[in-house]
Structure formats: C-alpha cells, structure tokens
C-alpha cells in the first residue's frame, strides 16, 4: 500500500500564484454559496435544559410517534445534534413545529409547511426559546411543552452548545 502523505508534491508556487490571480474561492465557500442546501458545514448545537441537564432530542421512534423529547445528553447522538438556522430547529430529517391551535409540539418532515408553525427564536441572554408567531416558550418540567413562562422560571431555560459534526 502506497503512503501518499509522505510523497513530495514538488514546487507548488505556480499553483498558488495562479489561484491568487484567478481569485479562487475555497471549497467551503462553494458549498455555502453555490451548492446551497448541503448540510456539511451547517452549525449544529446540543440544546440543553439548564435545570434538568437533559437535551432536546429530535429522534422519531414508534413509542413517541413524531414528538420531540428530552433525553440524557450524549455528544455522539445525531438526533441531539440540532441545526438552528433561519429560525428553524431541525435534525437531518425533521424540523420541530408547534401548532398553536391544537397546542401540539411535533416533528415534521421537510415538506412545505406554514412558517408560522416552524419558526423559533432563541433569546440567548435570557436563555429562552420561543415559538415566534405565538410568543409561547419551549418548557420542560417533566414533559416537553410550549406555554407561557414567568421571568426566570427554570422550566424555560435552555442553552445552545455548539457541537462537532
């Protein structure tokens, strides 16, 4: 088996000058600006409840149906590596939605959905996640719900910790 990392690549000065002359962009720039929609470089977070020290989990299973849950935090859990971009809380497969009419919090596939059901806002200084159109907060006090929160109520406090892919 050949080891290519030990080979001498030669003088790359011409390639570097050509790259600068052509104003070439990085592959990451290409993925973010040309090939939009790829999930390779999107920021992911572990959303942790500050009081119970458990994490938001967007895993579908037969027992919970399509309901997000709170589970013990695991750094390797892909269902706890959550994207929060443009107000959408999502995993690789589902986004979290709240129906203010039925008061149901569910996981939803990425088919077109009314923005008012899927948009969330994270208030970092107050550690609150709220449903943007209803103004109600994500809460956990033994059950994951959405509702009103008193100032500094522990059931409503969340932190978003960046995680590696």
Automatic annotation (TrEMBL):
<feature type="domain" description="Ricin B lectin">
    <location>
        <begin position="45"/>
        <end position="149"/>
    </location>
</feature>
<keyword id="KW-0808">Transferase</keyword>
<keyword id="KW-0430">Lectin</keyword>
<dbReference type="GO" id="GO:0006493">
    <property type="term" value="P:protein O-linked glycosylation"/>
</dbReference>
<protein>
    <submittedName>
        <fullName>Polypeptide N-acetylgalactosaminyltransferase 3 (Trinotate prediction)</fullName>
    </submittedName>
</protein>
<dbReference type="Pfam" id="PF00652">
    <property type="entry name" value="Ricin_B_lectin"/>
</dbReference>
<dbReference type="GO" id="GO:0004653">
    <property type="term" value="F:polypeptide N-acetylgalactosaminyltransferase activity"/>
</dbReference>
<dbReference type="GO" id="GO:0005794">
    <property type="term" value="C:Golgi apparatus"/>
</dbReference>
<dbReference type="InterPro" id="IPR000772">
    <property type="entry name" value="Ricin_B_lectin"/>
</dbReference>
<keyword id="KW-1015">Disulfide bond</keyword>
<dbReference type="InterPro" id="IPR035992">
    <property type="entry name" value="Ricin_B-like_lectins"/>
</dbReference>
<dbReference type="GO" id="GO:0030246">
    <property type="term" value="F:carbohydrate binding"/>
</dbReference>
């Amino acid at each position: 088996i050949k080891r290519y990392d030990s080979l001498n690549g030669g003088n790359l000065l011409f390639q570097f000058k050509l790259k600068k002359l052509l104003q070439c962009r990085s592959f990451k720039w290409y993925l973010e600006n040309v090939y939009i929609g790829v999930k390779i470089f999107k920021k992911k977070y572990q959303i942790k409840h500050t009081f119970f020290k458990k994490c938001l989990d967007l895993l579908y299973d037969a027992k919970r149906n399509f309901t997000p849950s709170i589970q013990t935090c695991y750094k390797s859990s892909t269902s706890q590596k959550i994207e929060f971009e443009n107000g959408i809380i999502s995993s690789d497969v589902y986004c979290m939605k709240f129906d203010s009419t039925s008061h149901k919090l569910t996981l939803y596939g990425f088919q077109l959905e009314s923005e008012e059901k899927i948009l969330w806002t994270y208030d970092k200084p107050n550690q609150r996640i709220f449903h943007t159109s209803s103004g109600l907060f994500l809460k956990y006090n033994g059950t994951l719900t959405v509702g009103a929160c008193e100032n500094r109520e522990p059931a409503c406090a969340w932190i978003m910790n960046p995680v590696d892919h």
